Amino acid sequence: MKKKSLLKKQRFLKVLLAVFLLIPIGMRAQEIQVKGRVLGASSNEGIPGATVMVKGSGTGAITDLDGNYTIKADKNATLVFSFIGYTEQTVAVKGRSQIDVFMKDDNQMLEEVVVVAYGTKSKATVTGALSSIENKELVKSPVASITNSLAGAVPGVSAVQTSGQPGKDGAEIYVRGSGSLSDSAGKPLILVDGVERDFTQLDPNEIESISILKDASSTAVFGVRGANGVVLVTTRRGSSGKPSISVTANFALQQPVEMVEQVGSYEYAKFFNMKMEMSGMPARFSKEAMEAYRTGSDPIFRPNTNWADYMLNDVSIQSKNNINISGGSDQVKYFVSMGYLYQNG
To answer: Cross-referenced PROSITE patterns, in alphabetical order (predicted)?
Structure first.
């Protein structure tokens, strides 16, 4: 009985092992090699460099100069075809080994326009070095000055903030660094709707877009004034249709990253007297004054005040609110905006 039971167990284990060995073979049998060509629907020519991915996996391939590709995929998989300027397309394999795809132009991408020196131009035809940022990106950051929103958001643009004073925390803008030893001569030309003016206090909700012209071909029309780059700010306009009301509000907490630790009155007086002594001059502070600074016995005439702790809050509050209304008809369009900024320090 024991031998029969042992034989049955051995047979069961052999069958189980055979099943496990056959499963990978069956899974591999599902994978097939798919070939094909990716072409433009309007030009009927191959698209080089298009990406072919197996949906839901990391398997992918790139088309060659003639738009040909080869990829291994499951017979029930879905292939995703994509390329800049064309609409992304998904195609089910369905066991086919040859799949040719005709990709349509992405008109929305090609019709996007940017503001250049002499008006607007399609992104697809711009050859100069310029970058732009739209209103949706500008209103994301809860900063007091629009100049700080450009930091890290536009390539080639640096924003340097030299003050943290409430209401005066606007940053200096530089395009591709400073082009002069003089700070004023190294700044870019800033135009708001074609008028040269400062834009640090403009509400981001009132700005449609900001274009940064960076190279010589983009700034040539401005002559020497555009040598350090040009910042073109376009404000929002009303649009035809029913009145549209938009309300935005954000709240932020501001805190210094690090405060400089300063010496007290007694240490200052002590070191000052040491300096005078080393210069061969009489001490500035008497022993009585030094003692008064040390003990704090004369807070009126011999104070020892930490002005940073006295004047600054540990955490400062900032709130920013805006409401704007836009609309109009074919003849008259309007855009009305009202904003409120509160900061304390």
So the answer is: TONB_DEPENDENT_REC_3
